[in-house]
Design a protein that fits this description.
Blueprint (H helix, E strand, L loop, with lengths): L2 H35 L2 H17 L10 H60 L3 H11 L5 H8 L3 H18 L1
Helix pairs in contact: 1-2, 1-3, 2-3, 4-6, 5-6
């Protein structure tokens, strides 16, 4: 018998053994895995992956005492690995949800704080003398330069600069 015929014979024999093993154990393994993972589709994937694992080591079948027991062990290990992975994914999802919730709360608090601070600043600005208030509002709200403010109000740039600094000092103290 030629080498190619021997190889062909062995491959057919391995495929026959695999089909018999599959026919004999598929339903039992599916039920076994379903009881571990609780999902039919996942149980089917585990069983299929386990058969693939057995097929990949077919050159070592002679060293395995019981292919049936080995197949159950592979299924069990794959099912437990899936549960561990799912647990890790759930933990990560929970961590992400907590992080997002904290960011949302932090953002909301920042918005509230900014709004309250702005209201407080606006209230303080209303207490300033009219010219000081006008200089500051032209600087901050209309974004005019000191030179433009001085020209518009017919005052010196130094006066504009001093009034803006005075407003900022008062606001710093009040905040």
């Amino acid at each position: 018998m030629a080498d190619s015929q021997l190889i062909d014979f062995r491959q057919k024999e391995e495929a026959f053994v695999m089909r018999k093993l599959h026919d004999r154990q598929w339903q039992k393994l599916l039920h076994f895995c379903y009881n571990i993972v609780g999902e039919e589709a996942e149980a089917q994937d585990i069983v299929q992956d386990s058969f693939m694992a057995i097929w990949k080591i077919r050159d070592r079948w002679e060293t395995i005492e019981s292919l049936d027991n080995y197949l159950f062990m592979v299924c069990r290990n794959n099912a437990l690995a899936l549960l561990k992975k799912q647990k890790e994914i759930r933990r990560l999802a929970e961590d992400i949800a907590i992080h997002l919730q904290n960011r949302i709360q932090h953002s909301a608090l920042e918005h509230i704080y900014a709004s309250e601070t702005n209201q407080h600043i606006q209230g303080q600005i209303q207490t300033f003398p009219a010219k000081m208030k006008e200089v500051f509002l032209l600087s901050r709200e209309e974004e005019l330069s000191q030179k433009e403010i001085a020209a518009k109000l017919a005052i010196s740039e130094n006066t504009v600069k001093k009034q803006i600094n005075n407003v900022l000092k008062v606001l710093k103290k009040k905040l």
